[in-house]
Design brief:
The protein is α/β, with parallel strands linked by helices. The protein has helices at about 1-15, 50-65, 85-100, 120-125, 135-145, 155-165, 185-195, 220-235, 250-260, 310-315, 335, 340-350, 360-375, 375-385, and strands at about 20-25, 70-75, 105-110, 130, 170-175, 200-210, 275-280, 285, 300, 305-310. Strand 7 (about 275-280) and strand 8 (about 285) form a beta hairpin. Helix 8 (about 220-235) runs parallel beside helix 13 (about 360-375) and helix 9 crosses helix 14. The two termini are about 40 Å apart.
Length: about 400
Amino acid sequence: MQQSKQNSAILLKNRPRVVRCHVILTYECNLRCIYCYEQVIPRNRGVIKDSYLMAMLAVVDQLAASGPEKTQVVLFGGEPLLNRSSQRQAIHKVLHYVAERGWETEVVTNGVGLIHYVPPLKEYKVSQIQVTIDGPQKVHDLRRPRASGRGSFASIVRSVTEALKAELPIAVRVNVDYQNLGYAPQIADLFHAQGWFTHPSFGAYWGLTFDVNDRYRYCGPPHKILEKLLEIRKHYPVTKMISSEAWEPLQFLLYPFFLGVPRLPKFFFCGAHRNEWCFDLRGDVYYCADSVGRPEFRVGRYIPRLELDEKVSKMWRENDSLEAQCCAHCRAKLCCGGGCWFRRIAAVGSPTGNLCTEQVLPMLYVTMTYLHRSPEVFGFAKTLGHRGEKP
């Protein structure tokens, strides 16, 4: 009874405007991406049991009843759209359940099996489908091969094309680092040649690749990657069609001064600090989508009912995300909200340890230097968008 009261207190104290719930039906994946942040977790075969699925959705009902203006359900993984009957049945149940309650549905998929799910995703009016394409075919297939070693590029391009024909909302994320950065013009040319840029339900954006497993050597400081992207942007205009929205701190510079749109200070970095929930097929609960499957980040269980570890819960939800050692005297900490706790814990073992994950000041300097030398200030500001989910 005491634990139940504590859980209710946590729900009420952190009642947000939007509740975002990641639903993990399987940890299996048909790709073996070389930078995958889930590569260290067990990928036991199988799809969620029906009893677990219904218990999971019942918890989402509980969260939706706590008073948010909007409830979002994100099909996540592993790979949520594996092409097998058990997966299709689970997906249909989730889509139907969500539609009945008027919630929003998003999908984060590698895109290989998307083509098989176009009809139900269209029927249930999903609000966004995120797919990742990392380069022209040779580069993409090197970075994101199938488990068998074959490439995934052709299947993903075919899936995106069919999804756009059905007018499904597609957001293509390009994870960029030193391995594929030089191919930015070819990536933009690919999207242009496919006719995707002209489609009203298509968008694309540059995302950052992060090495949280200490196994991937091509990552670089965010401001250095940004600097090279901006240089490419000057010489290859087609790359301007891919948004730079992943560089969120830039919005604090560009929106007020060039678009006249105020940006409020950020007192937290992401939804994990207040409104994000992740439920997996094993009955575990996490707050951070990047941390799923790692027992050390688990905050509780939803089987047989929702029970949270109060101490771990408070660490994520109630600690001030601006208390990190590196944030104390940072002049730009309200631009990023204190940075990513998951990456900080993975790197230095503490959410408030001395590691800056965002490097806002160098990014602002790079941007101001670029804007000073470039006449396309207004156009650059307008391309900043609103997506950002990781694969």
